[in-house]
Amino acid sequence: MTMRRALVSMASALCLFAAACGGARDDADRPGRGSVVSVAPVFEMTAAETGDYLAEWKYPVAGANGVRAHRVVYETVAADGTSTTASGLVVVPDTGVQRLRLVSYAHGTTVRRDEAPSADGETERARTVQFAAAGYAAVAPDYLGLGEGPGFHPYAHAPTEASASADLLLATRSLLADQGRDLDPNVLVTGFSQGAQAALALGRELNSGAIEGFAPAAVAAVSGAYAVQEVQAPAALDGRVEGRRAVLYLGYWITAMNRIYHLYDDPAEAFQQPYAQRVDGLFDGRHDLLAVSSGLPDTPQKLLTPQYLELARNPSGAALRAMADSDTVCDWTAAVPVRLFAASGDRSVPFENSLRCTKAVLGASAELIDLGDIDHGATVREALPRILDWFRKTQPPA
């Protein structure tokens, strides 16, 4: 690990788990990190209903049991270190097992807040349910600013992905204790796309012992943009990422990071007209993917100003800090097995992201699995059943 990355990693850890970024908490009378604010039932399914549901979503689980799902709102920390709340989905298997092993599943990119797992995000919900159907307690953080969380979503910001994921583990432990059940402290971690970045960020914190009462058991990540500076941003400009997907990624990332790192005073500094006057509004959490895509151009060269095209290629200042803070998710030495799944045919998140991850410190512990010439959305459908099978063989649910 380079000295710069080591310092960034240390600063991120202080920010996440001591709330040292952005000053002290100004509301110290609030409950602590991971405290449950509210719990609401989302759905309940019998074993037969669970089996039919997962078959419909093409995530079948042999011997599926019934499940009960809850939306949990809990205390966590914002990007500036102040207290906030987030929501997440907790799915509990309807079995007689008292001590449950936990799977944390981190979802992929969503632009509309009500498409988060605990809200109406059926696709990501089904991916979470498959783990509970196999007998695990399964959780899926919505991340900040999605679901019931206030404010805007800090898209692809690894520090808050990790903190929101970590605090949901604490909230889930409290929820299950109220139900007369408890959790095995060793957590199985997985995620897709944006969630792959989040999964490695959570795995890093578990591995370091930063989350009291929890440790990692295994980590499996699918098609993540782990190297924004070295791979993802350049690929968005040189054609390795398909044009509209590149525009979505860059527009979402720049507007999100501006709210944390103050990249610009006026959107017109970053975005060409007429997009500069509408881009912030498109990424407000209320527009769906179709609305966002139809409101933006088909190439990054039409979206970004020359200054920001150059900044994406050669970042400096606030843009470099934004990239560096999230580009450390592979810079840790895992004490548990790690599998990275990616596809050479992916036109959204290039395979080189995972190659770079295996060349980082994590590489000594990580196995890279090439899913072949398939596109981004197909990678999760191919990988998740394999991940569940791996989890069941190496860390059975009970």
Give an overview of the whole structure.
This protein is an alpha/beta fold. The chain has helices at 3-18, 47-56, 122-133, 158-178, 194-208, 228-238, 243-261, 279-282, 289-294, 300-303, 306-313, 317-326, 352-359, 376-394; strands spanning 36-45, 67-77, 83-93, 99-106, 137-141, 182-192, 215-222, 338-342, 366-370. Strands 1-2-3-5-4-6-7-8-9 form a nine-stranded mixed beta sheet, sandwiched between helices. Mean pLDDT is 93; it is low at 1-28.
In short:
This protein has 398 residues and is α/β, with parallel strands linked by helices.
Q: Whole-number average pLDDT?
A: 93
Distance between the termini: 37 Å
> What about the largest sheet?
9 strands, mixed
Range of strand content: 15-25%
Task: Note the run of SSEs as H and E.
Answer: HEHEEEHEHEHEHHHHHHHEHEH
Low-pLDDT runs: 1-28
Structural class: alpha/beta
- Approximately how much helix is present in the residues? 40-55%
Rg measurement, Å: 20 Å
Strand arrangement, largest sheet? 1-2-3-5-4-6-7-8-9
- Tally of helical runs: 14
What is the overall shape?
Answer: globular
The total strand number stands at: 9
Name a few traits of the molecule:
single chain; 398 residues; alpha/beta; nine-stranded mixed β-sheet; 14 helices; 19% strand; disordered N terminus
Helix/strand layout:
Blueprint: H1 3-18, E1 36-45, H2 47-56, E2 67-77, E3 83-93, E4 99-106, H3 122-133, E5 137-141, H4 158-178, E6 182-192, H5 194-208, E7 215-222, H6 228-238, H7 243-261, H8 279-282, H9 289-294, H10 300-303, H11 306-313, H12 317-326, E8 338-342, H13 352-359, E9 366-370, H14 376-394
Parallel strand pairs: 4-5, 4-6, 6-7, 7-8, 8-9
Antiparallel strand pairs: 1-2, 2-3, 3-5
Helix pairs in contact: 1-4, 2-3, 4-5, 6-7
